[in-house]
Amino acid sequence: MQFLLQPYPFYYKGRALWKLAGILFVMTLLFSYLFQPFVVYTPEHKMDYFWISVIHACTPVLIIALFSLLSISARREEKWNVGKEILLVLTFLFLVGIVQFLIRDLIYDNPNNWSLRYLFEEIRNTLFIGSLFAVLLVSLNFNRLNIRNIKNAHTVNVPSGRPDRDAEVTIFIETEVKGDDFNLKLDDFLFAMADGNYVEFYLRNGGTGKLVKRITIKELESALTPFPHIMRTHRSYLVNLHHVVTVNGNAQGYKLQLNNYDGTVPVSRQMINVFDAAMKHI
Description:
The chain has helices at residues 14-35, 49-67, 74-78, 82-102, 104-107, 116-153, 217-223, 272-279; strands at residues 170-173, 182-185, 189-195, 198-203, 210-213, 230-234, 237-240, 244-250, 253-258, 265-268. The protein folds into two domains: 3-153, no CATH class; 170-279, CATH 2.40.50.1020. A hairpin with a 2-residue loop joins β8 and β9 (253-258). It is built from eight helices and ten strands.
């Protein structure tokens, strides 16, 4: 049960999603064509078995295309875990089985194509084979990422003291709301998190605690470009590295603990190398 609650990367967006689609296409095509895992009754085929295998391999890609419409917030992405991944994969396989049933008339010359028997068989076969691959691949990928990131996190240079050169630095932040512009004292700034069209600013207790301003995380990052110790660690997070206390690894990347903040801030897998390099120059 504890394994199912472990953090796991969310792959169903952007370039990672289409990379996953390509891998699924190749794996499904090769497995179907080379191993012919289920009974193949050639007289029913309307085309060569290779092209039948290609059609079957295209089905997961079609479902992946639908998955590209998924919208998930940064907070939900951070809370993604092995259990949610497996549940989503099972849902994916169920949908693939249904589509495989719906395209039977395209592939097989059988008057019973639209029977409940074949609906059950297509869903059962897809879930059976897909689940074996899914459990194996999710487990292997989790262990690979978790071990690597935990190991790398231990090598990150975390200064024992915080530099005081930002103590008197104040930056004027212009927002998208007239009259809501403000001065940000750099030494009080812990991190910022995007929330739709707004950004939440988390400050040390000595500051105002938390501010919500209408500004994009990209605009904020641009305003703070002169300060290399303030960096994007995740698509929705901008962090003041001077406040990093500890760095811990998991399958999603790193989790940072900061001064005067009880929670953690993520470093995505894509940003680990940039983060490691930045921490060496603090």
